[in-house]
UniProtKB/TrEMBL annotation:
Signal peptide: none annotated. It is an enzyme of class 1 (oxidoreductase). This is alcohol dehydrogenase. GO terms for molecular function: alcohol dehydrogenase (NADP+) activity; butanol dehydrogenase (NAD+) activity; metal ion binding; methylglyoxal reductase (NADPH) (acetol producing) activity. It comes from Anaeromyces robustus.
């Protein structure tokens, strides 16, 4: 382990078929006023809303609802929730939904008592939080982001076409998260496989960095192998509990910071995708999928040994008689083949992007990168290769 690190993760996870039973005892630790945050109404169709409301009523909680939180949660919705929290002196924000709902809940939590422009201060300028925050908890219904066990919050300013992410300190993490894999059974195949590539991308953003031998890379390889194996089963049998539970836990492990320990990390694919979805409102995981293969083909030479390892360990590429370049590129090709077989989207055109958008998307990306520090002109070239 090459770099010193500090690891802290205070989120309590309740995992399994009976995990919702833990909501009632947990609620006793918080005040009377609860902000229930959720999305477009799917939790009402699948019955999860009624189950949660029944528990809240049993605990004699006063419930305020912030509904309509959509994928790529909007700044306007976050500010609406923040206003509700402050005006009603909310004691706990309970997010019931997928990662976008949990992200928005954390945004509400840090913004409710902030002075001035909270989005500019905390997501753009990365200022330290110097105001009161409200505790957050989650009941997860869709997996991929890992937001249930981290301080991450990605918010979209739809007016200015800026999608910004911030990993807040651990005190913003959900205090507890309830993970019942059965709650994900009604998620569409499109949403499920989108979430799976999000998991994979989180792993790869951390994996494709550094030239040292460290435990984190072995953990990442295990998560990648598990999620690849499980999604193949889940695509054929969406109600397979073992496969769906493995995918759910892989999502949590991929971004609860444990596999990032002592890693330099990359996150360029995410930076590009954030601006792609700011312009198209595409599904985050599908955007990552469309960008990843061209991006990795563009930068693999700068981290060639790791890409060779990736090809061998994750995709079982036989290196006999092949150059390192050939092995690395075959590994990327195997990932692209897998993505298509699972029904993932691999071109920007399919996601609603136009050629005219590409320069604006490229120019608005935050620059970073791991093995290769790409500039705006190189991002544009990558986007062109992603287009069709």
């Amino acid at each position: 382990m090459k770099f010193d690190f500090t690891f802290e993760n205070p989120t309590k996870i309740y995992f399994g078929k009976n995990s919702l039973d833990n909501l009632e005892p947990e609620l006793k630790n918080y005040g009377k006023k609860i902000l229930l945050a959720y999305g477009g109404g799917s939790i009402k169709k699948n019955g999860i809303y009624d189950k949660v409301i029944a528990i809240l009523k049993k605990c004699d909680k006063e419930v305020f609802e912030c509904s309509g939180i959509l994928p790529n949660p909007a700044l306007s919705k976050m500010l609406e929730g923040a206003k509700m929290v402050k005006e009603n002196n909310i004691d706990l924000i309970l997010a019931v939904g997928g990662g976008s709902v949990v992200d928005c809940a954390k945004g509400i939590a840090v913004s409710a008592y902030a002075e001035g422009d909270a989005f500019q201060r905390y997501w753009i300028n990365f200022e330290d939080i110097n105001n009161k925050t409200v505790p957050v908890a989650s009941v997860l219904t869709m997996v991929g982001t890992g937001s249930e066990m981290n301080g991450g919050s990605v918010i979209s300013d739809t007016v200015n076409k800026v999608k910004a992410g911030r990993v807040f300190p651990s005190f913003v993490n959900p205090k507890f998260s309830i993970l019942n894999p059965e709650f994900t059974f009604t998620v569409s195949k499109y949403q499920m496989v989108s979430g799976v590539f999000d998991i994979m991308s989180h792993c790869m953003e951390q994996y494709f960095s550094g030239d040292d031998d460290n435990t984190s890379d072995y953990l990442i390889e295990g998560i990648l192998k598990s999620v690849i194996h499980s999604v193949k089963i889940a695509v054929q049998d969406p109600n397979n509990y073992e496969a769906r539970s493995n995918i759910m836990w892989c999502a949590t492990m991929a971004l609860n910071k444990v596999v990032g320990c002592s890693k330099e990390q990359d996150w360029e694919v995410h930076a590009i995708e954030h601006q792609l979805s700011a312009y198209t409102n595409c599904s985050h995981g599908m955007g990552l999928c469309a960008i990843s293969m061209p991006y990795y083909r563009y930068i693999y030479k700068y981290g060639l040994p790791k890409f060779v390892r990736f090809a061998k360990e994750i995709w079982n590429v036989d290196a006999t008689g092949k150059s390192d370049d050939e092995v690395a590129l075959e590994g990327i090709a195997c990932m692209e083949k897998f993505a298509k077989e699972c029904g993932m989207i691999t071109t920007l055109k399919e996601l609603g992007a136009t050629k005219e958008m590409l320069p604006d998307i490229a120019n608005s990306c935050l620059l970073g990168g791991g093995y290769k520090k790409v500039n705006h002109e190189e991002i544009l070239e990558i986007l062109k290769q992603c287009y069709e």
